[in-house]
Design brief:
Layout: E1 5-8, E2 11-14, H1 20-23, H2 34-42, E3 48-50, E4 54-56, H3 69-78, H4 81-91, H5 97-110, E5 115-116, E6 119-120, H6 121-137, H7 144-157
Antiparallel strand pairs: 1-2, 3-4, 5-6
Helix pairs in contact: 3-6, 3-7, 4-6, 6-7
Length: 167
Amino acid sequence: MPTIFLRRDDGLVPSGGAPFGDLLERRGCDGVGLDDWELHLSTLFTEVRSYTYIEVRSADLQRDDLIASVPAFWTGILYHGDALEAASRIAAPWDSAAGWRAAMEAAARRGLGSAVAGVSLREAASRALGLAAWGLGNGAACAGAAGSDALARLAESRGLALATSAP
């Protein structure tokens, strides 16, 4: 990806669009450092970005009553090993860059009513929500009952069944 800016003492300066790897050849005042790398990474708008936390961009801007559902979902999945393993199996049909792009495009164009690689997105979403709820109820850190309530509101808002199910 081309760089946009570099961080210098007097602020941000245009980088000329050079790939970051090319900038590594520079030395002295024109050399790049960790601050430049972090700045470059902050300009890449991938679906998931990792900082000291994980940002999932498609989950941005939920309604106020659903705002807690995003962290509850990811807590239930990511903080329970069995739930994470089962969620990986749900996503297996899209476990490639092309498969992921196809699923994201189908969801953006047709919502949960679409199917990708022969898998209903509505069914996959219901199963994933059920796993997140199961993870929260079986040892995933932090969210507790408030997280389970948030997942129930999310499922209801999307017309999904929330069957808490073990992996």
